[in-house]
Each structure stands twice: as structure tokens, then as C-alpha cells.
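Inverse folding, one chain.
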């Protein structure tokens, strides 16, 4: 959904991303990948103070949980192979 410039990179070739707690740390957010996500600076600002922030927060929580669950399944299958 990002309509910023997600393909742009820094001089070092790194993505321009900011790590965000989807649930604010003051509101039970914890340092756990299941609720952390990397956003471009504009999406981060929208998520923090945009009028659509609540919809974006729900979308990001779903996405973070989905990706974390997929990662856990992959890690489990790799352990079982080893
Ligand atoms: Zn963005």
C-alpha cells in the first residue's frame, strides 16, 4: 500500500525504513517481532499521527502476526530437517 518511494535507498544501499512497535510501547507494546514492523518514514508518520492511523495499525498488526507465524513455521521445519 505504500505510495512513497519504497525502492529508494541510502548512500550505503540500505532501505530507508524505521522500526515501529505497532502497539505503542506505552499501550502494552512489547519488543517482540510479532508486533514490530519496518515502515518508510512517511508511512511511519501516517501510523503515528495520520487520520487513517487506526486502520493502518490494524492492517500492520495482521501483517506482522502473519509474517511472524510464517517465519516460526519455517524455523520449525528447518529444525526438524536438521
Ligand atoms: Zn511508506
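Residues assigned per position:
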Amino acid at each position: 500500500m505504500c505510495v512513497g518511494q519504497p525502492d529508494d535507498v541510502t548512500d550505503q544501499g540500505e532501505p530507508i525504513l524505521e522500526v515501529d512497535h505497532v502497539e505503542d510501547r506505552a499501550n502494552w507494546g512489547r519488543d517482540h517481532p510479532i508486533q514490530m514492523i519496518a515502515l518508510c518514514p512517511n508511512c511511519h508518520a501516517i501510523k503515528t499521527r495520520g487520520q487513517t492511523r487506526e486502520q493502518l495499525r490494524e492492517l500492520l498488526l495482521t501483517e506482522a502476526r502473519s509474517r511472524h507465524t510464517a517465519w516460526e513455521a519455517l524455523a520449525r521445519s528447518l529444525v526438524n530437517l536438521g
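The CA atoms of residues 1 and 79 lie 34 Å apart. The first strand starts at residue 18 and ends at 21.
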